[in-house]
């Protein structure tokens, strides 16, 4: 008899580094991934490690701040960089870099929200 494969569907924003919710050890994989998103000192605080929902909350705040920084850098690059003596070709490259980083950070923010919602739904606050 062939056993059907069961899978848990996750959103397109679900990070590939985190196991599917409900699978064995998924909260540990979520904690490991979330720790990579926060400064090292926060990832080592026992309260944040023991309570993945707290870690997810902090990661979300961290990523939101990084989005603000990337937006500010992008919005001010054309005005500020020439005054610093940065060549036009470098400015254009830098603007593309900031725009790409902003898109990446927005994706990470959606991923953090998806993981956070799953942790809350599974009692990840412990």
Q: What is the helix content?
A: 55-70%
Terminal residue distance: 40 Å
Which regions are unreliable across 5 or more consecutive residues at pLDDT < 50?
1-7
Radius of gyration, in Å, reads 19 Å
Order of helices and strands: HHHHH
Structural class: mainly alpha
Number of helices: 5
Strand segment count: 0
Report the sheet-strand fraction: under 5%
The biggest beta sheet reads: none
Mean pLDDT reading: 90
Overall 3D shape: elongated
Give your account of this protein's structure:
Residues 1-7 have low confidence and may be disordered. It contains 5 helices and no strands. The chain starts with 25 loop residues before the first helix and ends in a 5-residue tail after the last helix. The protein has helices at residues 26-37, 40-43, 46-50, 52-83, 88-121. Helix content is 69%, strand content 0%. It is mainly alpha-helical.
Brief account:
The chain is mainly alpha-helical and about 130 residues long.
SSE blueprint:
Elements (H helix, E strand, L loop, with lengths): L25 H12 L2 H4 L2 H5 L1 H32 L4 H34 L5
Helix pairs in contact: 1-4, 4-5
Key terms:
mainly alpha, 126 residues
